[in-house]
User: What shape does this take?
Amino acid sequence: MKCKVFSTGLIAVLLTLTTSITTVSAGDSISAYMGFSREVNEALAKQIQDKLGIEVKNITLSWGEIWARLQTESPRFNADMVLSFGASEAINGAKKGYYEKYQSPGWDGIDEAFKSKDGSYYALGTFSFLLLSNKDKLAEMGYDVPKSYQELLDPKWKGQIVIPSPRTSGTAYMINYSFLQLYGEKAGWEYLEKLDENVAFYTKSGNAPTELVGRGEYLLGIGADENVLKRIKDGYPLQWTVPVEGIGYEGNYCTILKGTKKLELAKKVMDYLGSEEISKFLGSMGYIPPRAGSVSALYGEVQPTFIKLDHAWAVKNKRTIVKQWKSKFLMKETAKAKKVGDEKEKKAAAKQ
Amino acid sequence: MAEAAIGNTPWSMWYKIRIFINTHLVNIFAGGLFVLLAIFLVFPLVMVFLKSFWGDDGFTTTFYQEFFTYNYYYWSFLNTMILGLSTMFILVVVGFCFAYMTTRGPMWLRTPLKICALMPLCAPPYIFSISLITLFGRNGMINNFFGLDFNIYSWTGVIAAQALAFLPLSFMMIENVLNSQNPSLEESASDMGASEMQIIRSITIPLASPGILKAALLVFVMTIAEFGNPAILGGRIPFLAPDTYLMITGEGDFNMASVLSVVLMVPCLIIFVLHNYILKGKGYTTIVGKPTAVDPKEITPVIKTFLLAVITPVVIMVVLCFAVIFIGAFVKIVGVDNTFVWDHMLNMQSNEAIYNSVKLSLMAGLFGAIVGTLLAYVIMRGKFKGRHVMEMMALSGFALPGTVIGVGYIMAFNKPPFLLAGTIWILILNCAFRFLAVGVEAGISKLHQISIEIEEASADLGADFITVFIKVILPIMFSAFVAGFIYTFMTTMMSLSSVIFLVTPGFDLAAVYIYLTAQLGELGLASAATVKMIFIVLVCLASLKLLAKKTGLKSEKK
Assistant: This one.
C-alpha cells in the first residue's frame, strides 16, 4: 500500500519531534515570567546570559497575567523567577508565601525602599506614566501641549485621549491611584469622571497609548514611560510631558519563586540583578534604577516632579478601587444600557 | 502464510490473544478513546462549570448573581451574540458567493478566487485588525488619502475583521458541498426551462444546506470565541471573549471567568444541538462514483453581477490587508516612516516561536488525526451502547470556544493526577482534542460511503480483523486522516484563544508572539513574523501535498 510510505514518513517526523522535545538543552538555564516590555525583557535576558552564562528562558506577560499564573500554579510554579511585576503582586504574593526568602549580598548598599525586609522581593527600578502627545497632529490642529492635568478637561480634547484600563494594566492602576492621592479620593474620582468625557477608550495595555498616540490615531494619551524613548528614536512624532502636578511612579519588582529546582542559579541571578551593571542597563532603557549614580536615559540627571504616593494604601485597596473604577467607567456604557440594567435591578429588588 | 500457520496452533498464547483482539478490538479501542475524551475534553469543561459555582467558601451562586445584576455583562452578552450572528450571516452569503463562483463560474477566475478566499487561513485571525488600523485607522492610509473620517474602532471594524479572518472556514465548508453535487441535477433542471435563480433556490441551496449550516455553526463559534479582533478594535464595546481573557489575566478572577465561559458556551451548544437536529438524516450524497466533468455553464448576467458585487470588495480587502502586512514587514514603521529596512525580517526571536509553532502543530495534527480516525471508525462500526454520546462528545469540539477550553485546561491539569501544566503535552492535547471534530466527521462520512460488506467480504475470505483493519479500513480512511491532520495543523498554527493561557517560558508560539508584539504596537515585527509564518505554512502544505501525490494518494482538502 502506498499510504504506508506516507504514514511511515509521518511517523518518522513524529519520532524526531518527540526526541527533540525530550532532549534538554545543555548548559545552565532558568525560566522566568517577565513583565517589562518585550524588548527590555529580551535585552535583560541577554545581558544575564552574556555575563553569567545562564540562559533565561522567558515569556513576556503583563503583571496581571503573571499574578493569575502564580495563583493557579501555586504551589508548583512553572517558572523559577519573576522579573518585574508590581508592588501589589510582590506584597500579596509574599503574604501568601509564594516567594523564596533570600538576603542577596548583591543588593548591599541599595536604598531600603527597593528591598523587602525579609528578602522576598527586590525592586529593579521604578517607572512612571507620562502625558504623551503627537507633535504632528497637534501642530496640524493648532493646539498646544497641555501643561497640567486640568487642561485635559477642556472639551476640545473630546474623543482625543486614550488611557489604559486599570482592570488589565498595572500602569493604569498606578495612574488611577495617583489621581486619587493627588486630589484626594473624592475630588480624584470627580476628576476622573470629568476626564472620562474626553477619553476615546481605555486600552488593555499600559503601553498601548504610546503606540496609538505615536501613530497619530489619537492626539493625547496617558501611558507608561517604558517604550517612549524607543518610539521617539524609531521616528514616531511622539513627545512626552511631565505635567506641573507631577507624575506617579511604581517599582518593577523581582523575586525567586518558592519550590524552584534551580535555587542556586536563581540566587546567582538575583545577586547580579543588584549590581551596578544592571542599574546602568535599566537606566539606559529609561527606568530610574536603584543604584545611586546610574541615570535614567529618559529623564536625565534631573528627577521629574513626582506625586507623593502612599503605595501601601494602593496595594491594600486595589480590589475596591478597581471595582469602583469598573462600576464608574466600564459598567456604564450607554444611557440606554443603564436604563435596561436599572430596570433589571429594580425587578430583582422587587422579587426579593 | 508461515505466520498464519504458527498462529493457528491452538496451544499458542499468541493465538488466544489474537482471537481476543479479533473479537474485541473495536471495544478495546472504544474504551480507550472514551477515557481519552473524558479526560481531555469533558474533564476541563466540568472544571470550568464547577469553578463557576465554587468560591472560597464552597458552593455559591454569587458569581451568577453578579453576572445577572450588572448591565455591563448583559451588554457584553448581547454584543457577543450580535457579533456572532451578523458575522455568521455575512460569511454565509459571502462564502456562498465565493463557492458558487469557484465551482460554477468561469474557469480562469476559479483558482485566483479560491486562493483569495483561503489566504486568510495562513495568518492569525487578529492580524486583520492590525492591517485595518493601518488602512482605516483615524490616521490610516486610506482615511488620510481620501480625507475620510471613518472610525475603525467600532462595530464595523470588529465585524469586518472577524469576517475577513473566518472567510476561509465558511468558504471551505460551502465549496465542499457545492463541489460534491451532481451537476446533472442542475443541468436537467435547466434543460426543462428553470431559470438559474430557480435552480439556485430549489436545488443548489437545499442540497448544500448541510455545508451551509456547518459553515454557519463554525463561523458563529469561532467569531464569538476569538478575542484578538474585538480586544484590539472593540474600543468601548464590551464582548464576552476578551472579557473572559481579561478577567483572568487582568483581575485573576477565575470564578467570574468561569461564569463568563459557561455563558459563552450556552449559545454555542444550543446552536450545535440545533444543527445536529436539523441535519439528522440529511446527508445528501448526489454523487455515486466519480463526478462527471461538465463544461461550466455561463452564469446569468444578473446573478453574475450580484456575485461580483459581493465578491469584489471582499477580494480588495483581503488583498489590501495582506499587502499592508507584507509592506509592514519591510519598512521601518508602516504609515509613519516608509523607508525600506531588513531589521524586522532579520529579527531572530520570531524564528524560534515559529519553529515551536510548527513543531506543536505537527504533533497536534498527527495526534488529532490518529485519534479522530480511530474515533470515527469506532463510532461507525462499533456495536456498543453510548456510541451516539461518543459522537456528540467528539464533535462538540466544533462548538466549544477556545477561551473556555484554555481556561479549563489550566484548572484541570495543574495538579495531580494530571500534572501537565508547563509541558508541551498540555498544548498538544489541547489543540488535538479541540480540533478533533473535523477528522472525526470526515472519517464518519467516508465510512458512510463504504458499505460494511467490503469488510465482511474480506473477513469471509479468511482475513482476520487486524488484517482487515490494516489492509481495508486504513486505506479507506486515509483521506479523512489527511483532512483531520491538515485542519488541526492549520488551526493550531493560528489559534490564540486557548494556547495563550498555556504557553510557558522558553516556549513561545508564533500566534502568541504576533499577538503580543502587535499589542505593544511593534507592527513591523508582527508583520514580519506573519510573513514568515505564511511562508512556512505554505511550504508545509505544499510538501504535504507533494508527499501525498508522490505516494499516489489524493489528499482531500477540507
